[in-house]
Amino acid sequence: MIYPWHLYLMAAIYVFAGTMHFIKPKMYLRIMPRYLPKPKLLVFLSGIAEIMLGVGLCFPSTKNLAISGIIAMLVVFLIVHYYMLTSKKAGAGIPVWVLLLRIPLQFGLMYWAFWYFQL
C-alpha cells in the first residue's frame, strides 16, 4: 500500500529526531528531568523508540502500532516540556513563550499521528 507523502514525512521526522539522540546526546541529557533515573539510558531508549516508530509508520502491518506508540511517546514527552519550563538550565535560554508553544505543538503532533489511523 502506498501512503500519502505526508505520512512518510512524519516517519522521516521521527527517524531524524531519534538519530539526533545519538549525534547530540548532551542536548537531550540537558532537558531530561533530574528526577528520572538513568538519564543516559532514557535518552538512548527514546532515540531508539523514535527511530523504530518512524520506520514502523511505513509498513501496513506496523503502521497503527507505530501511531499508538508515537502518541504515547508524545504524552510522555510532555514531562520533558514541563521540566524545560520549570528549570532554567533545561530551558537552555529558550524564551518562555517558545517553550509554552511547544505544549500545544505536542498535541498537534498527537492529532497528526492519530489522523493516520483512518488510512
TrEMBL record:
Keywords per UniProt: Membrane, Transmembrane, Transmembrane helix
Domain of life: Bacteria
Transmembrane segments: 6-23, 41-59, 65-84, 96-117
Compartments where found: Membrane
Pfam family, one: MauE
Topological relation to the membrane, as annotated: Multi-pass membrane protein
Stretches assigned to the Methylamine utilisation protein MauE domain: 7-89
Keyword Transmembrane: yes
InterPro entries listed in its UniProt record: Methylamine_util_MauE
PANTHER family recorded: DOXX FAMILY MEMBRANE PROTEIN (PTHR36974:SF1), MEMBRANE PROTEIN-RELATED (PTHR36974)
Protein name, as recorded: DoxX family protein
